[in-house]
Design a protein that fits this description.
The complex is a heterodimer of chains A (153) and B (83). Chain A is of the alpha+beta class and 153 residues long. Chain A is built from 4 helices and 8 strands; from the N terminus they run E-H-E-E-H-E-E-E-H-E-E-H. Chain A has a single domain, classed as Molybdopterin biosynthesis MoaE subunit (Aldehyde Oxidoreductase, domain 3), CATH 3.90.1170.40. Chain A has a 4-stranded mixed sheet with strand order 1-4-6-2, with helices on both faces. Chain A has a 4-stranded antiparallel sheet with strand order 5-3-7-8, with no helix packed on it. The longest helix of chain A is centred in the middle third of the chain and has 18 residues. Chain A is globular, with a radius of gyration of 16 Å. The two termini of chain A are 27 Å apart. Chain B has 83 residues and is an alpha+beta fold. Chain B has a single domain, classed as Roll (Ubiquitin-like (UB roll)). Chain B is built from 3 helices and 5 strands; from the N terminus they run E-H-E-H-H-E-E-E. A 5-stranded mixed sheet of chain B has the order 2-1-5-3-4. The longest helix of chain B has 9 residues. The radius of gyration of chain B is 12 Å and the shape is globular. The model of chain B has no long low-confidence stretch (mean pLDDT 97). The chains are: A alpha+beta (153), B alpha+beta (83). At the A-B interface, strand 3, helix 2, helix 3 and strand 7 of A face strand 5 of B.
Amino acid sequence: MTSVTIRIQESDFDIAREIALLAEGRTDIGAVVSFSGICRGSDGDGVSALTLEHYPDMAEAEIRRHVDEAIARWPLNGVTVVHRVGRLTPGQNIVLVLTASAHRQAAFQAAEFLMDYLKTSAPFWKQEENASGSNWVEAQAQDDAAAARWTKS
Amino acid sequence: MKLKYFAWVRERVGKAEETIEPPASVRTIEDLIAWLTQRGEAYAYAFEKPKVIRAAIDHAHVKPDTVIAGAREIAFFPPMTGG
């Protein structure tokens, strides 16, 4: 059985607590991979904050579709995805992906797969604040390429 | 049907959502974008590069040639930048 937790929230998350919850009462997990995305402040003209907008009715469903696909592709014991929304400043957490499996390879691959699709397919948008005002972050071709490699046979 | 707009599409259109009744000749997502573009400067600006705009019908991504018949909610937004 794969335990799945998907949350979209304004508040921060505690990685150690999320891992403990994922593994609680189970002895079949041999590997947990944790990915955290963090608001970066050192690029170019200095980002002072990010505001994340999302499409509430769709975001969880879209994440769920990719979690289900990951579960179909790899032998996973558990998946946790937490995505924050609202205004975040450099150094703060944005997103957490945890994947648990009996062995590390599935957990590593599934975490990377989920992050690649979260970036290109989950309905979230980042707006940057910097010294000259604010602007919407543009999607990166490299992110599309990263997601596309999972569809190659 | 209900339309929703997000991120800079929302800002350009000037509203987050609205209810519309397009004519029967508007069959697909790309038809709908073309029809919206005729509705005023704000729409023309929001949809000036229709190939960039992404769409979802009832909370699932769809392609521009997807037929909109039966849709309850259609959303338009820029490429996603979450994660």
